[in-house]
Amino acid sequence: MKISGESDLSIDFCGIKFKNPFVLSSSPPTTTGEMIKRAFDAGWAGAVTKTLVREEIVNVKPRFASLAFPGSPEEPKKIYAFENIELVTDRPFSVWLEEIEDIRKSYSDHVIIASLMDDASHPEGWKEMAKKVEGAGAHMIELNMSCPHGMPEKGMGSAIGQNPKLAGKVTKWVADAVKIPIISKMTPNVTDISEPARACVENGASAISAINTVGAIMGVDLDTFVPKPAVAGYSAHGGLSGMAIKPIALKAIATIREAVDIPISGIGGIATWEDASEFLLMGASTLQLCTEVMVRGYGIIEDLNDGLSNYMEEHGFASINDMVGVAQRKMRALSDLSKEYKVVSSVKESKCVKCDICYISCNDAGYQAISLREDRIPIIDEEKCTGCSLCYQVCPVWDCVAMKEVSGG
Amino acid sequence: MKGEIFEEVEKGYTPQEAVAEAFRCIKCQDAPCNKGCPAGIDVAKFIRQIAQKNFGGAIRVIREENILPGTCARICPQRELCEGQCSSTELAQAIRIGKLQRFVADYEREKGAKLLGKLEPRGLSVAVIGGGPAGLSAAATLVRLGYEVDLFDANPLPGGLLTYAIPPYRLPYEVIEDEIEYIRALGVNIHCQSPKKDIPTLMERYAAVFIGFGAGDPQRMAIEGENGEGIIQGLDLLREIKLGQIENRGIGFQMGRRVEVVGGGNAAVDAAVSARRLGAEVVTIRYRRTEKEMPAWRDEIEFAEKEGVRLEFLCAPKRFLGDHGRLKGIEYIRMKLGETDPSDRAQPMPIEGSEFIVEADTAIVAIGQKPSFEAIEGAGISPEGWVQVDEQTMATSIEGIYAGGDLVNGGDTAIRAVGDGKRAAFAIDEYIKAKHGQT
Ligand SMILES: Cc1cc2nc3c(=O)[nH]c(=O)nc-3n(C[C@H](O)[C@H](O)[C@H](O)COP(=O)(O)OP(=O)(O)OC[C@H]3O[C@@H](n4cnc5c(N)ncnc54)[C@H](O)[C@@H]3O)c2cc1C
Ligand SMILES: Cc1cc2nc3c(=O)[nH]c(=O)nc-3n(C[C@H](O)[C@H](O)[C@H](O)COP(=O)(O)O)c2cc1C
Asked: How far is CA A67 from CA A64, A311, B81, B159, B404, in A?
């Protein structure tokens, strides 16, 4: 029995209104039109279809592997890195067209984005697919030039995104063929992500989405010697997603934002409203999620929306737009950071559990600035301390070690 | 008040402790904790929010359903409600839902509370009689639904038993005081020292009336010597202790060395613990059935035992023995359990010739409460003397008059009173809309 209204989380992205910034990325949560509809009912503002191709796809089994925090009876298992060797959609293009049309008919304030893939020698393939999804009613098109496994072997996916020339060429084909906005989806598996991004923008992309998965091998089974995930005794490298890739994604967004002035759809490791807020502050204006939804379902939208609106209220942001890029403006070249600004470590005695972890780190990987008192309380030698913060990073207690400022800069 | 004997016992969580506790939640889809809450709080959601450090969102989710979050967090019998349903019980132990709720309520109190949203004013007034949890909840919900609300309470302060009975070591007055302040800030006009009896005349001025008089009158035993010196009512003692805290003064009751407490409900347990804290050496609760039938909650009984209160079962007072009108002992008779009565508890039966005498300096009587109000003219009254209502809408048999809380349920919990008041408010809204049109 709720009386309070909802706060306004809407954002304009390439002239299209999203009622909140949260979009399902092209991935298992958007496997079918029926699933996308359920996600819209749950509150998602938009969805990118699982990537559509003209050729027939057969997936291997199994195709996932993951790393999780140990998980004890006290603490639930928490996946922090997820690997997949899944390919694009294994459902027919014609069926997808019907589903896109149906979604457009049934949902007036939700955004449906069609993800497309082909190789860089098939302009007609790209154009035909693009025109068809536009005809079916897709609001936007996302170009998958970033899938890192399976498809590159056929000249698709990241084989295009890793080559700025090809990326620009493909973007131009599609941009010329349709009127709806084009988003080019970047792969992080490049040296400088701003190059393909710039090439796409110069050739007609209205927005950039970043990032797709990070090339990875999850591990090796020590009894069978087969890397994970194992398929009939062999494995292939795949794509990493989930919270482990969030720092890579944030860096990609900052870099792209610096290079081109264009809306960015942030993807990679978003799980909570805090992650979402960080992506917005770094310069993304819509946010795409996959892995967290695979783990916890569409229902997380409620917590994302609520946490984000509470954060905005507490920090005085009147709209999502006000948040976008605020943190990116605080990025500088490392050489431009202040050399005068100094901090030194300080230990709150009342919180210290006398574990000597900070002592060991400083002694073996720092500047020997910490000594242990008789009662095992660490004592900081402020002359020797260079303020690196390793002790702060390793201290297992909240609120025990702090870096205190000794002079401004 | 002298000393710190009535300072709150349970300490709250730090933010880190709260997040760690919330993180333990395994996030069941079909959250059973939600079903355990009589006020319908989305418990699972607020736990998730705390786990994600969205404390502001968590308190909003709670307050949307329960206008007394800090109060209920402290006094709800969670083990019988939400926590009793928790799936984590099987893994290690139930999530401490009450402590999590208390954490976000206290967190917000410290940061300054944000007011919940309200609908457009509707230009119609509703009267609420009784400022206990039932009345406060009804009033807050109605004011949020766009009504002018006048709340009348007979006491100098609102809050009902929360203000005047539940001891400060479990519920400090400041907590309920702040929550009442919040309800005032929402726009409820609270009129204290305004007992109202003539409900039908109120109907001339108001579009509807909610009554939540509670059941604040002590039941009497009607046995020999009951009015002697040294014999006090549990509720009177508890009221004096709360007033001592509120007015920051000493307690006007002298506790003897040996205190006998007669009764088995929460009032008996609270009075017994309070007597211990006031310095009584030996405090014994005597209840006429067995521990299993005690209406007091298990957690409260365990707490009392920790505080040094003794429990004796299957005995009932026959008469109070006095010396020049001053209590010096109690004659009890042993009981045995007989047939099961309509409330599903075994009836206690006296065992002939089993009388025994216990020396006592003070006797505290706490054998239950009943509604203080005779009857609402024309409204249905159950054989036990409680007001009868429609379970869904809380409507009495008189059009436009709704009721909830202890008055109708025979004395239960604050959270149930909150749930009743809220449900009644939504039903009143429907009733008024049907009668006066949508706008
Ligand atoms: C000692 C004790 C301990 C308890 N401990 C707990 C606990 O730990 N947890 C828990 O959940 N519950 C506890 N309860 C029960 C809980 O206090 C009640 O269930 C709850 O207060 C009932 O709310 P209410 O609004 O129905 O009535 P009340 O709280 O009794 O409020 C009724 C109000 O109506 C006013 N009133 C009465 N007649 C009139 C009139 N004619 N005109 C105007 N105003 C009038 C009264 O002044 C009073 O303020 C306890 C009760 C007692 C006695
Ligand atoms: C199992 C799986 C399948 C995916 N399939 C696609 C795909 O078909 N097309 C695509 O553009 N991205 C695909 N992705 C990448 C996601 O859309 C997303 O870019 C990536 O997982 C990072 O986001 P996350 O950390 O929220 O999962 C897939 C990811 C996973 C885990």
From this structure: 11, 30, 37, 52, 53
What residues contact residue A345 under an 8 Å CB cut-off, 6+ apart?
A358, A369, A370, A380, A385, A387, A389, A391, A392, A401, A402, A403, A404
Supply the mean pLDDT for chain A.
Answer: 95
Q: What is the pLDDT of residue B33?
A: 95
Which two tokens mark A353? 């559990």
Task: Tell me the per-residue pLDDT of B176-230, one tens digit each, with 9 for 90 and over.
Answer: 999 999 999 999 999 999 998 888 788 899 999 999 999 877 888 888 888 889 9
Query: With a 6 A CB cut-off, is B163 part of the ligand 1 pocket?
Result: no
pLDDT exceeds cutoff 70 at A10: yes
Give the chain B residue nearest A271 (alpha carbons).
Answer: B52
B119 and A272: CB-CB below 8 Å? no
Please name every residue paired with A207 in a beta bridge, in sequence order, or none if there are none.
Answer: A183
On chain B, the residues whose CB falls within 8 A of the CB of A400 are none
pLDDT at residue B277 tops 50: yes
> What are the structural domains, with CATH classification, of chain A?
11-330 (3.20.20.70), 337-405 (3.30.70.20)
- The answer on pLDDT for A6 being more than 90 is no
How, if at all, do strands A227-228 and A219-220 pair? Answer: antiparallel
Cβ–Cβ contact B93 with A under 8 A: no
Q: Do A2 and B64 touch (CB under 8 A)?
A: yes
User: Does A409 have pLDDT greater than 60?
Assistant: no
Domains and CATH numbers, chain B: 3-111 (1.10.1060.10), 125-216+371-436 (3.50.50.60), 220-369 (3.50.50.60)
What kind and span of H or E run contains B149? strand B148-152
Give the closest ligand to the alpha carbon of residue B74: 1
A4, A274, A303 ranked by CB distance to B117: nearest: A4
Residue of the CA atom closest to atom 18 of ligand 2: A212
Nearest C-alpha of chain A: how many angstroms from B58?
9
Contacts of the segment B378-386: beta carbons below 8 A, 24+ positions apart: B379/B403, B384/B410, B386/B215, B386/B410
Is residue B401 very low, low, confident or very high in pLDDT (cuts 50, 70, 90)? very high
**ipTM attached to this prediction:** 0.81
Is A352 among the catalytic positions?
no
Q: Say whether pLDDT at A408 is over 80.
A: no
Omega before B371 within 30 of 0, i.e. cis: no
Tell me which residue has tokens 């075994």: B346
* Nearest ligand (C-alpha, residue B415): 1
Percentage of the residues of chain B whose pLDDT score is greater than 70: 97
Chain A interface includes B239 (CB < 8 A): no
